[in-house]
Queue: 2 jobs
Job 1
Amino acid sequence: MTIDVSVIPAPRRLESAGESGPFSGDVRTSVDPSLPPEAYRLTVAADGAEIVGGDEAGVFWGRQTLRQLRGPDAFRRAPIAREPAAVPYVTIEDEPRFAWRGFMLDVARHFLPKDDVLRYIDLLAVHKLNVLHLHLTDDQGWRVEIERYPRLTEVGAWRRRTRRGWGDPAVWDERPHGGFYTRDDLREIVAYAAERHIAVVPEIDFPGHAQAAIAAYPELGNTDVVDTAALEVKTDWGINPNVLAPTDAVLRFYEGVLEEVLEVFPGEFVHIGGDECVKDQWRASPTAQARIRELKLKDEDELQSWMIRHFGRWLAARGRRLIGWDEILEGGLAEGAAVACWRWYRGGIAAAEAGHDVVMCPQQEVYLDHVQDDGDQEPVPFGWVHTLEDVYRFEPVPPRLAGTPHADRVIGTQANLWSEATEDRRRVDYQVFPRLVAFAEVAWSRLPGPDERDFAGFERRMNAAHYARLDALGVGYRPPSGPYPWQRRPGIPGRMHDKPRRTWHMA
Ligand code: ACM
């Protein structure tokens, strides 16, 4: 007999005799390498639980499921004295659909203090997500201490003021904003995540989105086109023409940055950004044009590609793999590099067909900075409306790849939170939850196609148990009925995308 015990993400197989009762608290664990990576088998009975994992990660995910079975109070930081919750006696066999189940925090646009990052690692673990991608650098801030280039954080981590929303005329918060993680803070974050079987992927974004670095070291910019010494850490949002110069000196500088990044982040993947690099300055720059001629390149896209390929090889020589946003495909990509596809399915399809691994994170589906309802009380409405149901019906494998050998190139999926309009943890919680819960089920569970998914069943499990778990964890999620007064942001205008959102049917 199968009973609904409100496990989220939904396990592959759950068997129950329909019984529940007291639980001794004993947990026996072991590893059986004949099970797939991260898989587990969990048996719960009156005398305790047994978890057999395919590896230690599998055992860990099994523990997360057991915690859910023990009731919402199991998510408090300490036990509270009450009758122990009745636990359903079940057998669960479970394994993830995708190896990369990611979440990106943009800590560049608004700095998120270390404790908040550690808390997010706990929240990812609860939902069996296993990659935390930290967007550490952008035009509006540089958040990682680099010892050999101290001005990156002395100057680049701070901005004079901050635009609030996207209104016209602009609304400003005139207080300076900033912050950065020391190398030891980041080591702590990495170690804390590793204890939870979560990999931290650092992103150093270049050659675009690099104005904070140029503000710190003006020689990194296109000095033959603009007075880069006059540039400050950007206070406003949007796509920015001030990009790195394609010179050897800039390559050496970023090698120096990445050498220190590799010392702190031991994981396989290093994200080098590569998105939204406006080529206007390269078109105007005699230095950039000379470089194009010297390297016999076709155009500025190939110039970017030359920089990215350089770092693809540089990372490979150090046993690491490059991942970047899907623009890195333009002009060709080094072998072994992976692509984070954010512009609908297109880049992911092209990358997979060209033999590159792909992480699907299209902005049309899983950008959690986008608004989650079309009501007029939503705080700082931005992007397209992605409701909880929309996220639940997101399918990471593009229909065109499904059933082909290229589908295996989709190694995973990721939800991204850009932080222009999320200035603190409360705002982050509101944007991320409950949608990350739906996303976690998409990433872990083998759900049917988007139209066949049982969203009503997911909502039932949310209402029966998972909102209570989030309450116990202290997550400031968006209530199904809409924002609480303190979750609104009256007077801060947003900016909705005007083109209709293309849905999965139209891939
Ligand atoms: C991106 O959203 N610019 C990757």
Note: The chain has a mean pLDDT of 95.
Job 2
Amino acid sequence: MCGIVGYIGEEQAAPFLLNGLSKLEYRGYDSAGVAVYDNELHVVKSKGRLSVLDGILQGGKALPGTVGIGHTRWATHGAPSDVNSHPQVSDGGKFAVVHNGIIENYLELKNHLIRRGVEFVSDTDTEVVAQLLEYYYRNDVLDAVQKVIRRVEGSYALGIICADCPEKIFAVRKDSPLIVGAGQGENFIASDIPAILSKTRDIYRLQDKEIAVLERDNIAFFNEEREPIEKQLERVEWDVDAAEKGGFEHFMMKEICEQPEALRKTISPRIKENKVVLDDISLTAEQLRDVSRVFIVACGTSYHVGVVAKYAFEKLLKIPLEVDVASEFRYRDPILDEHTLVIIISQSGETADTLAALRMAKKSGARVLSIVNVVGSTIANESDDVLYTWAGPEIAVASTKAYSTQLAVIYLIVLYMAQELGVLSDKERKEYLDDLQRLPDLAESCLADKEKIQYFASRYFNAGDMYFIGRNVDYAASLEASLKLKEISYIHSEAYTGGELKHGPISLIEDGTLVIAICTYDRLFDKMMSNVKEVKARGAVVLGITTHDREEAFRQEGDFRFCIPKITDFMLPSLSILPLQLFAYYCASMKGCDIDKPRNLAKSVTVE
Ligand code: AGP
């Protein structure tokens, strides 16, 4: 996510802004900038690390002024560059804006303003906010802010300063966090608490569409109707380290819990009037009809997304789809030609094997569509089309919210292709889209009962081996669940298809062996119950992941169960993985492992 900091007081703003932004670096970013008022608005911003900006500003000394806003940018719209960095400034130079979030209708608003002669300089969605503020401004900034938040759709945390009103900072949010810090003769805004802890522990948490107006000795709050509102002051007791993780002990748990919100950010901008809208790709219906086969190529967790995708593609589109790990794909001779679509999946966008596979595919004439989290990464830049997951930076080595949002993008692609190829009736498409739009809330419900998983982990975190079994999409989920467990808890774990047990692996089952049976795919539930009986007969302890309607049936056979809501079959892994991410986390935590930085692993494997 982007980082926002603002200062108004008696001291120089720039040094504080730089220090505050440094406390938000953990959030991940690709550029940084500040705007400070000193007789006029001065904006200094650059692509790259905060140290680049710090050097230009000589630690802040080069930019005098006691009112300012700063920003670290995690690119969503517009690759990392100086001009796309924030603050974004309006055409007439009156407004400087920093933003965290996604303005979903920015293209429509941008075209509206261009038709009225406004000149844009960046590729960002944020610049639309700055331009709109100046467009609506009639010597009343609060009025302009009100008008802007009525027009923009999407998520935003905004810090705003106006050259005509330099004794104030304006702040407003919707769906992206923003806090106001209260000091003595100075006040602050920030995306997150670490940025201002050096100055104050007294904060106000802005709620959606609440507007804050900060002066040196006063903070006023208004609702979107411009009615003054009273807010509760909160005293922060966290230390800085805990604050960086939003109060969570580890980034991994923070990111597990961010999944519902990340899914909303991935899905919401891409479903309009009951249709999938993928503005970001140029793949036409004609090109889609020309596709004779599809490959999905990735590594690790991203590969496991491809295994789920296979079920979705072949069920809905009847297009043959092959899923391969990049390190194999790049060294075998896959049959590729101009009628092949290769979908590359990568959180980091820098994985060496995956990048090599992409280059091989392009050389063969195949069309490459990539699903990436890091905007402007090498894989994104070298693909014919890229769909960003917009999950925000994933800091923990073990991928969680990237997996979930990658799956969501796969569902969007499959439904988009089905829509463009006309293989779904309107009723069928609506049912799928309704389920996809329910997914974030259903994910929230699955994460609500952490204690149950924590209790189960406390019983089995010392196990030497654990086995995950499933069939169809449940097998795909078991691959990811097994990887999560082994990579952070170092417990040996394997995933098998239920039907394969009798062909060898069942010899591993003995008294007390822990088996986790994922049985959410209803059509094969009875087959999975047979597998549960098989392993129970050999002494296994079985934890089931199943749907609520099958809880009673599972209770007859298994030892423990965790239930998830029903949803479209190929979307089930998006829910069944959640308790198993938590299970891996709690096992690793109880074993005292380094959860965010597991041994031998890197967040981005940029070497072969
Ligand atoms: C997942 O938890 C691992 N950290 C790892 O398997 C990862 O998914 C793999 O290295 C691929 O990374 P990428 O998605 O950035 O390409």
Note: The chain has a mean pLDDT of 94.
